[in-house]
From TrEMBL:
It catalyses: 3 propionate 3-nitronate + 3 O2 + H2O = 3 3-oxopropanoate + 2 nitrate + nitrite + H2O2 + 3 H(+). Belongs to the nitronate monooxygenase family. NMO class I subfamily. This is Probable nitronate monooxygenase. Its cofactor is FMN. It comes from the Bacteria. PANTHER family: NITRONATE MONOOXYGENASE-RELATED (PTHR42747). It comes from Staphylococcus succinus. GO terms for molecular function: monooxygenase activity. InterPro entries: Aldolase_TIM, NMO. CDD domains: NPD_like. Nitronate monooxygenase that uses molecular oxygen to catalyze the oxidative denitrification of alkyl nitronates. Acts on propionate 3-nitronate (P3N), the presumed physiological substrate. Probably functions in the detoxification of P3N, a metabolic poison produced by plants and fungi as a defense mechanism. Keywords: Detoxification, Flavoprotein, FMN, Monooxygenase, Oxidoreductase.
Length: 355
């Protein structure tokens, strides 16, 4: 087994390592450093407005001439229910009062922002785009393909992976339940739950059921994880939490320290911060929301309702009132540069493969 695969050939990269598009935590420096180190950096553009997306792509292109990706959120078709929003605003009032915050004005123009992002990606000559929260419509897929852009989808079950392949996606990420941050799920299981299948179980089952290349994601932090992903049939691995604690990440010191000080048992999957299930470090805000006697408003509404609270808490060093997305392998997190992390992962993998 060697570290060159279908993915390294397709993406034009040296190593089968992808840095996850962690919205809010990537920087142009992180993306470019990962790409310059022979892997695939990804701009986490999920929350960007068009101006910010254009700026980030321009900055990355100034720092590297190697391939990188942009990660976008597929727009949701969620309901705007005023009564639910009023109820949630009443619940969040004490938090806002603590930080002297006003009630936010909601922006529900997700679709327009997404379509503009697709145009920007094409105009700026980005070669690879990844999607989470579902599969973009056929018009978007055809538009990207017409410009020879490689498209990556996300799946948390075999059913979702098959749907990605059927929609003509080029590659699919198999996101195991260990992964930190938002779940990429867009289907429900037979008992109306979101799929939560572990990486080691999910990857080979997806590999056996699709013909497009598979990227393994969830809990992978080192060379052992890289080799394991390849042995299971993936053509590359995606690492998120591993890059969160690097020097180039946009994560605050509070956030980086929280990951470093956490145990493998400290994370939970919750929808209280954004309205979508995501894995993060358990804290007081999550526990307090257990007492909330109504449905949490859907994403992106809940995300906007709690956004200023989370930012203010993080700024004041309050880890109990902000989101701290993390996968289930925090004990393996390291404080180092992204370039050194990739070097270590590759060296570990090569040593294992030579044994």
């Amino acid at each position: 087994m060697k570290l060159s695969t279908r993915i390294t050939d397709l993406f034009g990269i040296k190593y089968p390592i992808i840095q996850a598009g962690m919205a809010g935590s990537t920087t142009p420096e992180l993306v470019a450093t990962v790409s310059n180190s022979g892997s695939l950096g990804t701009i986490g553009a999920g929350y960007f407005n068009p101006e910010k997306l254009e700026q980030e792509i321009t900055r990355v292109q100034a720092l590297t001439d190697l391939p990188f990706a942009v990660n976008l959120f597929v727009p949701s078709e969620k309901l705007y229910i005023p009564e639910k929003i009023e109820h949630m605003n009443a619940w969040l009032r004490p938090y806002r009062r603590a930080f002297n915050l006003e009630e936010p004005v909601l922006n529900i123009s997700e679709e327009q922002v997404f379509n503009k992002a697709i145009d920007i990606v094409i105009d700026k000559g980005v070669k690879i785009v990844s999607f989470t929260f579902g599969i973009p419509n056929q018009a978007v897929i055809k538009k990207l393909k017409a410009h020879n852009i490689i498209i990556i989808g996300t799946a948390t079950s075999v059913e979702e992976a098959i749907a990605n392949e059927s929609a003509n996606m080029d590659v699919v990420i198999a996101q195991g339940s260990e992964a930190g941050g938002h779940r990429g799920s867009f289907t429900r299981t037979s008992n109306n739950q979101m799929p939560l299948v572990g990486t080691m179980s999910l990857v080979p089952q997806i590999v056996d059921n699709v013909n497009i290349p598979v990227i393994a994601a969830g809990g992978i932090m080192d060379g052992r994880g890289l080799v394991a992903g390849l042995v299971l049939g993936a053509q590359a691995v995606q690492m998120g939490t591993g890059f969160l604690t690097t020097e180039e990440s946009a994560a605050t010191e509070l956030y980086k320290n929280a990951i470093k000080q956490s145990l493998e048992t400290d994370t939970v999957v919750t929808n209280v911060f954004s309205g979508k299930p995501a894995r993060g470090i358990d804290n007081e805000f999550i526990h307090n929301m257990e007492g909330y006697n109504d449905d949490i408003p859907d994403y992106p509404i809940q995300n906007q309702l709690t956004n200023a609270i989370r930012k203010a808490a993080a700024k004041e060093g309050n880890a109990q009132w902000t989101h701290l997305w993390s996968g289930q392998s925090p004990r393996l997190a390291q404080r180092l540069s992204a370039a050194l992390l990739i070097e270590k992962v590759v060296k570990e993998a090569e040593n294992i493969l030579q044994q």
